[in-house]
Design goal:
heterodimer; A: 195 residues; alpha/beta; 8-stranded mixed sheet; 7 helices; 26% strand; globular; B: 375 residues; 10 helices; 33% helix
């Protein structure tokens, strides 16, 4: 299993025991495994990478192969209590489409992403180089990320699309950041709902 | 880890049943034989049994070979054996020849005890559900209350799915591979053309050709040729045969010119030499009739509500006979019922026949899935 990630605890806090949970871009299934362990959820992952899909099967996690950029049309309206996308939104082309789909299929959506507005990233740009950090580990030429946005950008997008931000937490090195999250937070986790 | 090995030399067994079998088509079969093979060892609490269901032209001979026939490799030998995805060091694997077949289980070519002559056209219609009933009776006889898994590709996948609905408490896991919850109109159309080829062959004699000492080889050959087109993908046919000409140029003849013609004729002739025309008719009809959602007003989710097994559904990107979208129907109906289900869409060029190949991702997923099954 992949290394335990500190956003897992935040996500688990937002999920009730026995919920139906969909994890988009579920990787090797370690978040779902965590949620099954601590919340006894009925969990399903969506993954389109053959190696990650295989890892899920090895880990005994339900996984459905699908290309999320084509939407979630096979999933029923409001079927899931929570639809999660952990550190994958920045790798999706159709950002608005997938957010709308997450809130169609789920009562709430949980999204985490690396904050490009983080001060170290800003410093890197000022120094003339694209940021490479713990939360943005790739070089510009091999990154899977295709959308580069900040906490402030995401807030504006939610506002524009009528998405309710029910909770938002920013982190730096595993610790919650309350002041100036768009400057001091390297990663953000959102709980979203329909207005 | 060991290197994958063959199960080695195998031999079929026959189980005779005297308890009449009620059939979905009405009527009953008073008595019948089932031919089957087993690989591996049934454990003390009979918890490691896996049933492999065969497709249209398959049989009970899933793995290994017969002592006196070096070319008699089982049809899914790459899947079943020590160190293979369905590992016979862990599982007790059973292949059963379906009723109506021509490989030893009672079928149109076997003797009807009531007349002392071959059943021929009088052999009753049998369905996927009937097959599952007979497989359950064989399981009873072998002391297997519950299968660790039921597995099948294509029509075999339909049997695996049907198992989970007819005997939900007797199936722990089900792998439904390159299959569909029912045939489409196009699928039925291909079957109908194949059947018409057989039914209109003058040597068919209304299904009683055994009495005339002939075989409707032309019809069977055509049926197989049509079937074969649907088993391959456009890409794989293109890659294998393309527009290759036997003579290097057009010779303006109806003899074989394009290599694909040669291939189809060869496959058709070979098939007509060993397969039974009535079996082909019966089996394609079993395919056509299979539709578990029919009794639920077409609602597949409602039909699958009974299933308790954990599922693996697999499709292949270039399969147009049972395309990935047909597998997804099954997946999302299971999801609706909150069943445990995983779904893999394997990138493989070989079309419907992909399920018989040992494509690495496909076999890796199967290996991982079987490894998780506790026995």
């Amino acid at each position: 299993m992949a290394a335990y990630r500190y956003d897992y605890d935040v996500i688990a806090q937002w999920i009730q025991t026995g919920e139906k949970v969909l994890d988009l871009g579920c990787g090797d299934g370690s978040l779902l495994k965590h949620l099954i362990d601590v919340r006894q959820v009925q969990g399903y992952g969506v993954e389109n990478d053959p190696d990650k899909l295989l890892a899920c099967v090895k880990n005994g996690i339900n996984v459905i192969q699908a290309n999320m950029d084509k939407g979630l049309s096979d999933f029923e309206d409001g079927f899931f209590d929570h639809v999660i996308m952990s550190l994958s939104l920045q790798a999706m082309h159709n950002t608005q489409g997938i957010l709308a789909e997450m809130l169609r299929v789920g009562h709430e959506a949980v999204v985490s992403f690396p904050n490009f507005g983080y001060w170290r990233h800003r410093q890197s740009i000022i120094n003339g180089r694209m940021p490479v950090s713990e939360s943005l580990p790739h070089q510009w030429f091999n990154t899977p990320n295709v959308r580069f946005f900040t906490i402030a950008d995401f807030d504006a997008l939610c506002e524009m699309n009528g998405i309710a931000v029910r909770e938002r937490l920013a982190f730096d090195e595993g610790k919650v950041v309350t002041d100036e999250p768009n400057f001091l937070g390297s990663m953000a986790v959102y709980r979203l709902g329909r207005n | 880890m060991i290197q994958p090995q063959s199960v080695g030399i195998v031999a079929p067994q026959t189980a005779h049943f005297e308890t009449p079998l009620p059939l979905r088509s009405g009527g009953t079969l008073p008595s019948y034989d089932l031919v089957y093979e087993t690989y591996g060892t049934l454990n003390a609490d009979a918890s490691n049994a896996v049933l492999v269901c065969h497709a249209l032209s398959g049989s009970h001979h899933v793995a290994g070979r017969y002592a006196d026939e070096p070319d008699s490799l089982g049809w899914w030998d790459n899947l079943v054996g020590p160190g293979k995805p369905l590992d016979t060091r862990k599982f007790f694997v059973i292949g059963v020849n379906n009723l109506g077949s021509c490989y030893g289980s009672s079928g149109p070519g076997s003797i009807n005890p009531a007349t002392g002559k071959p059943w021929g056209a009088a052999f009753p219609f049998v369905t996927v559900e009937d097959w599952v009933d007979t497989q359950a009776r064989l399981a009873d006889r072998l002391g297997i209350k519950r299968f660790a898994a039921v597995v099948g590709g294509s029509l075999g996948g339909m049997q695996a799915l049907s198992w989970t609905l007819q005997y939900p408490d007797r199936v722990g896991h089900a792998a439904v591979i390159a299959s569909a919850p029912k045939l489409s109109a196009q699928n039925i159309a291909f079957n109908e053309v194949a059947r018409q080829a057989i039914l209109t062959d003058p040597d068919f004699h209304g299904g009683n050709f055994y009495d005339h000492g002939v075989v409707p080889v032309r019809g069977l050959k055509l049926a197989r040729m049509i079937g074969h087109i649907t088993y391959l993908s456009d890409d794989s046919m293109g890659e294998k045969f393309g527009r290759s000409l036997r003579h290097g140029k057009a010779v303006y003849s109806y003899d074989v010119e394009f290599e694909i013609e040669s291939y189809l004729r060869y496959q058709g002739d070979k098939f007509a030499g060993y397969f039974d025309a009535n079996t082909y008719l019966l089996t394609t009809k079993a395919l056509d009739y299979y539709d578990p959602a029919f009794a639920h007003g077409g609602n597949l989710s409602a039909a699958l509500a009974k299933a308790e097994a954990d599922f693996l559904v697999v499709s292949f990107t270039t399969d147009w006979r049972f395309s990935p979208s047909r597998s997804r129907e099954i997946v999302y109906a299971l999801l609706h019922n909150q069943r445990n289900v995983s779904y893999a869409e394997i990138d493989c060029a070989a079309g419907h026949d992909s399920f018989l190949l040992d494509e690495p991702q496909y076999h890796a997923v199967l290996t991982a899935w079987f490894d998780r099954i506790k026995v």
